[in-house]
Amino acid sequence: MLPALREASRQVYLRSREQKKLDELQDAILDEQYLFEGIELTAKEKEEFRYKRTVLELAKRGAEDLDSFEEYRMPESYDREGKVKQDRRFAVALERYKDVDGENEKMNPFAEQEAWEEHQIGKAKLQFGAANRKKKDDYEYVFEDQIDFVKADLLEGFNEDDMEMEEAEIKKSAEKSAFMQLQEERKTLPIYRYRDELLQAIDDHQVLVIVGETGSGKTTQIPQYLHEAGYTKKGRIGCTQPRRVAAMSVAARVAQELGVKLGHEVGYSIRFEDCTSDKTILKYMTDGMLLREFLGEPDLASYSVMMVDEAHERTLSTDVLFGLVKDIARFRPDLKLLISSATLDADKFSDYFDKAPIFNIPGRRYPVDLLYTKAPEADYLEAAVVTVLQIHVTQPAGDVLVFFTGQEEIEAAEEILKARTRGLGSRIAEMIICPIYANLPSDLQAKIFEETPEGARKVVLATNIAETSLTIDGIKYVIDPGFCKQKSYNPRTGMESLIVTPISKAAAQQRAGRAGRTSPGKCFRLYTAWSHQHEMEDNTVPEIQRTNLGNVVLMLKSLGIVDLVHFDFLDPPPAETLIRALEQLYALGALNDHGELTKLGRRMAEFPLDPMLSKMIVASDKFKCSEEIVTIAAMLSVGNSIFYRPKDKQVHADNARMNFHTGNVGDQIALLKVYDTWKETNYSTQWCYENYIQVRSMKRARDIRDQLEGLLDRVEIEPSSSPNDIEAIKKAITSGYFYHTAKLQKNGSYRTVKNPQTVHIHPSSGLAEVLPRWVVYFELVITTKEYMRQVIEIKPDWLIEIAPHYYKKQDVEDASSQKLPKGTGRAVMD
DNA sequence: GAGCACTGC
User: Fold this and answer.
1) A389: CB within 7 A of chain B nucleic strand
2) Does strand B come within 7 Å of the CB of A243?
3) A344 C-beta neighbours (distance < 10 Å), count
4) Distance from CA of residue A289 to its chain's centroid?
5) CA end-to-end span of chain A, whole Å?
6) Residue A790 C-alpha from the chain's centroid
7) Which residue is nearest to nucleotide B8 (CA to C1')?
8) A254: which residues sit within 8 A by CB, 6+ positions away?
9) Against a cut of 0.85, is the pTM above it?
10) Nearest nucleotide (C1') to the CA of residue A287?
């Protein structure tokens, strides 16, 4: 099996090298031809000639790098079952490779250029202008079959002449007053001509699925139309968004269009910021915020219309919302429900909402040519870099956006790109490389929004952040290697991991669309048309099916939903995930034997946190350290992005971090120390820099902390503080996390007590070299090993003191022959 | 002795 795989990889490698050599040869022949015929070139032709030479040079540099290819692509690492690990991408590439001799022969992003070259060689005559026109025809012919679905979209959706006219109209109206101008602009949106039809449809049906691509104006216009039609007399109109910035900016825009002050008639509501008032009739909010609102108003009584926007994104919150609003619609016939989505899932939504009719609104987007590779690319990083360079020297002006899976790849690509363009000086245009990913410090992120100087080209290297969360103007070329990192959750072990996965067709379409926002564009897909057609899933697995549902289950329980396993989910999560979440809630004492919420459970549900964190906070009351625990909860829920660890200063960063671990107090206590020290510096940014701490994360922790502190009152917890009683703080943590206990084994690894399995302390932990006998951990992650992240040492006696229903004396005795507890006592609280 | 896709409450 493995030797075969190796051999196959060798073949892929040889094949790609061979192809490269052929390309070079072809170029060389062409070059000689110029000289041989002694043709005088015009300035423009010379420029093209220079470009070609540069391409050649770049290709040669690429070929040198190929020598390291084999080792780079074929690491000798296997997973626990002995299968080849990590290189799932390789396996995928291999699958694609099978098809090389098949129908894909003509799918090559540079077929354009090759066709042109063949043509040139044949004619042995130089006619650049004519050749350019010709190559376009060739190219279109070659790719015709592959663009059917996007092409259909483009032809129907949008006509460039219309657009120009509309733009001219907008310009004309610029002379009118700002308000009048806005009103004119509203009328140019594609949705405008469907206004009456749409209102009629909403009037006729309780639930309507609205399909409209970005740019159709649905998010800003529909609530206004409904207001104009009088719906706001019966209650406010709500519109949910998956992201905070979207909710804010859309609300601001609509307030402007209606000529009212933001926060009055039009407002938005997001976490940490409620910009609404009694007057608010159009309310934009994040989907998570609406979920929270459900707790206080389970029938949405104050709303006459609820619009769930961007439903196709299928965030965890939208999926939960679907189940809830569908239920409400049954006993509130006066409530109108609008589900709005970009094209792909409309039928599915319609079926789910009892065959609700679908209303189509065309979008406004420029056409994007889709180009596929001829043969599969075994090394997409290299392929992406080469494609960037090729675009840079052969394609007209316009910025480039490349999708990578993470920071590491982005940094690698940046380095290679810099190395290959180094020393070319003025022979190629300036290339501005902009990396962008969520953990990049904000000042460096801002770089992508700077306008590209005349004559230069911006190359944005991005993670999935550029797929939905931010849009960059001026992008004309998208390079899509076809992978992303996806979270997956194993309910059996309770472990989370990030896995590099092929993207879905829907995601690929979204990525391609990024090239056509401001002008027609091109999308270079680094996989074959065949594999796009036959191997990629239609849609990404919705988040609800690959995440821990602890807090979702707690929230649904507090809404009084008894039978969660049969709850009407659009796509039900795995039963095991639900069962594990329920089990955990039992163990924590949030549910009684009948599966109903206990008083403790109701208090826990008040916090927008994982059940274990909530339990920890509620328990802190007893140990008189709520101040400290709230800080720890806030720091833990910010995630693992607190410590900044740049590649070139890892030692400094590690030293700085270890300062907070003095006394081997454990990671959670260290986080507390980080926060308190920061607070003492009066929340100094400078201090963060000096200690290699992410300012953004700390500010977030402060926001969360403030919110949690505000909620203490609601669950009747008196603020209390015991900053020097580490034991009390650790006991409070254990009250939430006794479920996550692990015991040291002879070989230095740990064994978890619940679901016995071998785990290790994460090397970033302050206790990684201390190895206490008993630990409680915050979470389990799989990377190169199974790691416990954020651990503290505990005394086993605490377990019996804190969770007597869960641990018996023999469970925590240290005799190594003792069998570890298995499925010990169900919850017997209350 | 390691690796942090992206949101959201």
Assistant:
1) no
2) yes
3) 16
4) 19
5) 57
6) 24
7) A288
8) A220, A223, A224, A266, A282, A284
9) no
10) B8
